[in-house]
Specification:
This protein is of the alpha+beta class. It is built from twelve helices and seven strands.
């Protein structure tokens, strides 16, 4: 059972958003989009600085809608959310030591979506490094260590984490050497996530119960985005707002998010607060070459969801 309850009102609104999206973008196939949407009705249990205990938080009912929310999809840089939480867990448990370099890498991984920073984080989390191919014995040990993050998320006992795979670095050009061998001949071991799994993880961060209240707030600070065009970086290919969920919001909205994109996918996962409306969480994945380069789909979906929230 997913962590949110299905709701007729949200089912109707969610389905109408999808139908409008397919109508507007006829090249978007029905199996090229996945979506999870959680609404926080009052009393709102999230973004309160961790005022609720984990037990109280997880027993607080939330309603949601999902479409293909359990489908395994290549997540691109959205996987960095999972490495962010794992790094904070390791720090909290003393499994790794705090340092300025670790802080810098965590910031660059989330704020700028740096793949180089992510490479260091994965090395720290797993005690492995990239390099030439290894002989069978050492490679087996290396693979065991690289699955450390997977084992952590499975240990949480969340149903949504049962089918995910979070053990690969993120790349510009792609993996080489032992990293390429670890992907498997047909890339069958690449990272895979579902929009429901991402929604649950983000729900825990926004609820202040991911690792600890203080660490959740620190993670929220990294995820905060400005949607003011004047604040967006001008020298980057993607700023994680334009062409993503933040691009479809009214100017006075607030958003905390992590986007992901490649030549084949365009994704975003966000917690959103509109003025005088219920806050909500939205994860939208799109797949396909044409969809990956289309900067209009995610803002369109985001705008329709924002309008739907204003009607609740």
């Amino acid at each position: 059972m997913v962590f949110f309850s299905k709701d007729e009102q949200l089912e109707n609104l969610g389905n109408s958003v999808l139908e409008a999206t397919w109508s507007k973008f006829p090249s978007l196939a029905r199996n090229q989009i996945a979506l999870t949407w959680i609404v926080y009705d009052p009393p709102v249990p999230v973004n309160t600085g961790g005022a609720l205990t984990p037990d109280a938080f997880w027993h607080h009912p939330v309603r949601g809608f999902n479409y293909r929310g359990a489908e395994r999809i290549y997540p691109a840089s959205v996987v960095k959310l999972f490495y962010l939480v794992a790094a904070n867990e390791w720090l909290e448990k003393g499994m790794t030591q705090p340092s300025k370099e670790l802080d810098r890498a965590l910031r660059d991984m989330i704020v700028d979506s740096s793949n180089d920073a992510t490479s260091l984080i994965v090395d720290i989390l797993t005690g492995t490094t990239s390099g030439p191919e290894l002989s069978p014995g050492p490679f087996e040990t290396w693979k065991q260590q690289r699955n450390f993050v997977n084992r952590y998320f499975q240990s949480l006992g969340w149903e949504e984490m049962a089918s995910i795979n979070v053990c690969q670095k993120t790349w510009g050009d792609g993996p080489y050497g032992r990293e390429r061998a670890f992907y498997g001949e047909m890339f069958e071991n690449r990272n895979m996530l579902t929009t429901n799994a991402i929604a649950r993880l983000l729900h825990s961060i926004v609820g202040g119960v991911a690792v600890s209240s203080e660490r959740s707030q620190n993670m929220m600070a990294l995820l905060k985005r400005s949607i003011n065009p004047d604040d967006l970086p001008k020298d980057v290919e993607e700023d994680q707002v334009t062409g993503f969920l933040g691009g479809g919001l009214p100017p006075n909205s607030q958003i905390w998010s992590k986007a992901g994109w490649t030549s084949q996918v365009r994704h975003d996962a966000a917690y959103i607060e509109l003025l005088d409306q219920r806050p909500y969480l939205l994860v939208v994945f799109t797949e396909g070459k044409e969809q990956a380069t289309n900067r209009a789909i995610l803002p369109f979906v985001s705008q329709l969801i924002a309008e739907a929230v204003s009607r609740l």
